[in-house]
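Re: [ENG-882] Designed sequences occasionally contain unexpected residues at chain ends

Forwarding the minimal case from QA. C-alpha cells:
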C-alpha cells in the first residue's frame, strides 16, 4: 500500500520531489536534536494545487501528514514520529511572491518563503516587515504563522497573527480555502484566518498569506543598559512607554548568567556592561520624524532613568553596525547555551507586573531543589514573554542533567507560571513536547472546545496528529 502511495505522490509532484530512506534524515530531526523521527517519505510540492492533491492522496490511503517549513521549531512539532508511517509535507519549494500592493500596504507570499527574504523584499519595496526573530535566516512564513511566532518587535507591531490579513489554506480533505483578500475589516462570520494561525498544522496546511507592511521609520535607535533589578527593569519599561509611546519597538531583558555564557563562548562580541548588574536591557525605538528627534527622546529617557536609579549605566549605538552588534549579542544567547550543552527550555508569558515576583520565587525554589543550577533568563520583557531556561551545574554532565531533572524543573516552573496567571507557551507553541502538560494548565472547557474544532476540521486525525492535543497515538 505504501509503495502505491509513494508512486501516487511522485506522479503529483514529479520525480525528485519525493524523498525516501536516508534522504529524509534532515527532515526527521528537530532543531534541538532531541527527537529523531522516521518518515515514510518527504514530499515537496511546488504549488497549492499539488499540496491539495497530496493531502487527498494521503487521506485516501489513511496516512497522516506532518507539515513542515524551515524546521526551526523548539517543541518537537514539525518532524515525524518514529513509526515510519507519516508523510512529511515540506513547503520549502513554495516561495513565490504573488503580489506586492504598496497602496494597500500588503505583500502576498507563499508559505515556504524564508522570513529574512520576506523582510528583504518588503525593504526593496520601500517598507518594513517588522517580524524579526533569531531563526529568521531559515524559518519560513508558513511556520511563523502556524506557531504565531513573536520575536523582538511585538511591543509595537504584535505577533505574526497581528501582521496577517489573509490566508490560503488546504484543508484536511484536500480542499483549498482562498482567504487572501488582504482586508482589514471583514465581519462576515467566524474569522477562519485566526483559527488556522497558531494551530501548528493540526487544522490545515497554510500555503500562502497576505501580510501587512508598514512604512520605514525615519530613524531607529538602540540602547543597551545595565539595571539593578527586575523591579527596576519593569519601571524602566513603564518609563519608556510614557516617554516614547508608540516609538518603543523592542524591550529585551537578559540576566547576567545568559550574558556570561555569550561572553564565554563568543568573547569577540564584547558584551557591554554585563558585569555591572544582575540584568541588562536592550531597548529599541523607531521614530517617524527624524534621527535628531528620536535621539532627543531616547537620551531624555535614559537621563530620567538614571536619575531614578533605574539604570546603572547605558550605551547608545552610534551607527547601524553598532546597533546590529548589540542585537547580535542578544540573539547569540541561544547559541551560547547550545555551546555550553543541552539545557532545559521554557517559553512562558506572565503579566508584566508579576514577573519580578515569579522570577524571585522560582529562582529560589530551583536553587533549593538543585544547588548549582544555572538559570538563563532572557526574553521579551516588553510583552511579558520570558525564556526561562536551566543549564546544568558546572560540575554536572549536561545530558545527564536534562535526563534526570527536566521533569522536576518543569513542574516547578509551570506550577508557578500557573499560580502567577501566566501561560506555559508564549511563542513556541505546544507541539508534542508540551502536549501532555497542556490539560493541566488550560481550562477543561477550552480543551473540549479545541478538541471539537480538531474533530470537525480533521475527523480522520491526519494533520500533525499527536501535536497540541492529547489524542490517538501514531507511535509504533
Amino acid at each position: 500500500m505504501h509503495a502505491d502511495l509513494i508512486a501516487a505522490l511522485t506522479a503529483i509532484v514529479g520525480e525528485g520531489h519525493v524523498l525516501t530512506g536516508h534522504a529524509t534524515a534532515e527532515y526527521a530531526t528537530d532543531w534541538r536534536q532531541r527527537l529523531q523521527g522516521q518518515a515514510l517519505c518527504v514530499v515537496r510540492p511546488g504549488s497549492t494545487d499539488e499540496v491539495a492533491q497530496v493531502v487527498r492522496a494521503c487521506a485516501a490511503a489513511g496516512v497522516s501528514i506532518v507539515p513542515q517549513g524551515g524546521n526551526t521549531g523548539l517543541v518537537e512539532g514539525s518532524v515525524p514520529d518514529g513509526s515510519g508511517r507519516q508523510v512529511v509535507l515540506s513547503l520549502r519549494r513554495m516561495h513565490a511572491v504573488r503580489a506586492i500592493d504598496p497602496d494597500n500596504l500588503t505583500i502576498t507570499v507563499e508559505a515556504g518563503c524564508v522570513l529574512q527574504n520576506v523582510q528583504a523584499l518588503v525593504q526593496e519595496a520601500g517598507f518594513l516587515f517588522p517580524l524579526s526573530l533569531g531563526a529568521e535566516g531559515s524559518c519560513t512564513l508558513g511556520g511563523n504563522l502556524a506557531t504565531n511566532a513573536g520575536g523582538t518587535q511585538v511591543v509595537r507591531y504584535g505577533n505574526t497573527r497581528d501582521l496577517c490579513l489573509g490566508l490560503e489554506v488546504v484543508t484536511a480533505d484536500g480542499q483549498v480555502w482562498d482567504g487572501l483578500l488582504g482586508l482589514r475589516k471583514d465581519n462576515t462570520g467566524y474569522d477562519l484566518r485566526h483559527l488556522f494561525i497558531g494551530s501548528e498544522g493540526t487544522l490545515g496546511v497554510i500555503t500562502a498569506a497576505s501580510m501587512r507592511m508598514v512604512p520605514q521609520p525615519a530613524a531607529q535607535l538602540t540602547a543597551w543598559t545595565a539595571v539593578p533589578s527586575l523591579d527596576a527593569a519593569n519601571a524602566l519599561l513603564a518609563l519608556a512607554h510614557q516617554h516614547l509611546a508608540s516609538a518603543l519597538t523592542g524591550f529585551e531583558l537578559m540576566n547576567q548568567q545568559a550574558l556570561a555564557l555569550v561572553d564565554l563562548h563568543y568573547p569577540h562580541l564584547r558584551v557591554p556592561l554585563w558585569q555591572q548588574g544582575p540584568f541588562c536591557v536592550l531597548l529599541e525605538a523607531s521614530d517617524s520624524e527624524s534621527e535628531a528627534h528620536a535621539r532627543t527622546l531616547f537620551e531624555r529617557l535614559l537621563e530620567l532613568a538614571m536619575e531614578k536609579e533605574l539604570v546603572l549605566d547605558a550605551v547608545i549605538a552610534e551607527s547601524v553596525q553598532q546597533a546590529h552588534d548589540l542585537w547580535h549579542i542578544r540573539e547569540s544567547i541561544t547559541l551560547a547555551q547550545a555551546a555550553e550543552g543541552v539545557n532545559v527550555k521554557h517559553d512562558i508569558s506572565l503579566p508584566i507586573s508579576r514577573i519580578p515576583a515569579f522570577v524571585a520565587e522560582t529562582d529560589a525554589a530551583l536553587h533549593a531543589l538543585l544547588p548549582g543550577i544555572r538559570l538563563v533568563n532572557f526574553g521579551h520583557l516588553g510583552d511579558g514573554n520570558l525564556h526561562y531556561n536551566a543549564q546544568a551545574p558546572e560540575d554536572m554532565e549536561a545530558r545527564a542533567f536534562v535526563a534526570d531533572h527536566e521533569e522536576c524543573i518543569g513542574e516547578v516552573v509551570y506550577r508557578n507560571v500557573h499560580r502567577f496567571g501566566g501561560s506555559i507557551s508564549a511563542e513556541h507553541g505546544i507541539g508534542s513536547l508540551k502536549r501532555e502538560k497542556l490539560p493541566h494548565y488550560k481550562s477543561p472547557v477550552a480543551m473540549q472546545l479545541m478538541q471539537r474544532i480538531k474533530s470537525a476540521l480533521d475527523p480522520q486525525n491526519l494533520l500533525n496528529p499527536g501535536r497540541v492535543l492529547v489524542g490517538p497515538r501514531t507511535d509504533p
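QA comment: On inspection the terminal residues look reasonable. The chain is about 35% helix and 20% strand. Proposing we downgrade this to a documentation issue.
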